[in-house]
Specification:
Elements: E1 2-8, H1 15-31, E2 36-38, H2 50-54, H3 64-76, E3 79-88, E4 94-101, E5 107-112, E6 118-120, E7 126-128, E8 140-145, E9 148-152, H4 161-169, E10 174-176, H5 183-201, E11 204-207, E12 211-213, E13 219-221, E14 225-227, E15 233-236, E16 242-248, H6 250-259
Helix pairs in contact: 1-3
Length: 275
Amino acid sequence: MTKIAIFQSRTGIYPAANSQNLVSAIEQAANGGAEMLFTPEMSGLLDRDIDRARQNVRNAGEDPVLAACRVAAKRTGVWLHLGSLAVTAEDGKFANRGFVIDSDGEIRASYDKIHLFDVDLPTGESWRESNVYRGGSEAVVVDGTPVGRLGLTICYDLRFPALFQSLTDAGAQVVSVPAAFTVPTGKAHWEILLRARAIEAGVFVVAAAQCGRHEDGRDTYGHSLLVDPWGTILVEMGEQVGIAFGEVDPRKVDEVRSRIPAIRHRRAVSKAVSR
């Protein structure tokens, strides 16, 4: 049984302030006895004013938020899944990149969000991540974390079960879904999709989310969740900023997969034929 912490945040447009909040969350996680902390998507900067954001985005080696979190992880002995940061990519675009940092402050793995959120919502909201961000191409599973084999996703990836299949085919026991879900899509789909992914993959799902009205004017849904492999919600954080604690038990993965062996029953399916 592993105790984890989830940070539900309201990230703003100033990396220094966001960094302080993250370091405080790491310390709270350590003080609460957690072995690993999970944070939301865009934990270091959330700013839809791209010109202003460009002044604060750095490559991973120079990012001050990442550096501060690495120091805090080493000082406290807590593992960290830094849900994602905006970092510069080689082609001049940004990457939406998550980092797994161990208790020595070392980066064990990183993952670039594969599926980019390009959508026009009925509310009038329009998002075009691909205008600014470069999508990733590789699914990532991290060995040796306190929660076992950890699969990495980010936000909109939640809507693509093939990615979760790839992660569980590679042995993932837990999948992290850091997010900054919009309020309309969050109300409609957040919980049901997270529970569905947990059930069909037979994994724990840890979903740390952004919440509330942000400095750049956007609203995010919150309701960070910890879901077990049976689809039971173990943690639900509502709409307030803060830390919550939960437990992940790898034995539950084995138990559920023995009861519903869907992963073993997967078969390659050819392209559907119209008749």
